[in-house]
Amino acid sequence: MTEPSPSEFRELVRGFFEQIPFNRQIGLEMGELDLEALTLSASFELRPELIGNIWKKILHGGVIATALDTIGGLTAMVAAYQRMGDIDWKEKAERLSKLGTVDMRVDYLKPGRGEHFTCHGSILRTGNKLVVTRMELVNDAGELIATGTATYLY
Hints:
Blueprint: H1 6-19, H2 21-26, E1 29-34, E2 39-45, E3 51-53, E4 58-59, H3 61-83, H4 89-96, E5 100-108, E6 116-126, E7 130-139, E8 144-153
């Protein structure tokens, strides 16, 4: 298999994202992927099964953490891919398939109120084996609901 072009790689990332059953379960849809800035976004709509507080109709904290980890991991995967440079595509794919969360911190800043939520991921640092990301979750009013930082091993 040959190295994919940037547009082919973008489609591979989107296809990988869409194959994850849990992403479909919470309705997480991939948004923009900027290969140069190493930023990524995804969004989802509030649904009854995502509510953690039924009286106040706010998101469950686990849904928030899941969305942040998902976007952080995908952002880390893109950064790791670029960091590996010119090594063989098959070796890159093998290393990327092992990417996993080592550590993650979530700060819940406001209750998860809203109808539409968007996660943004960016890179803080990319090393030879670890990637550190920063993630944010905002609601449809533009309020910052939660932030996260995470470390991923590849």
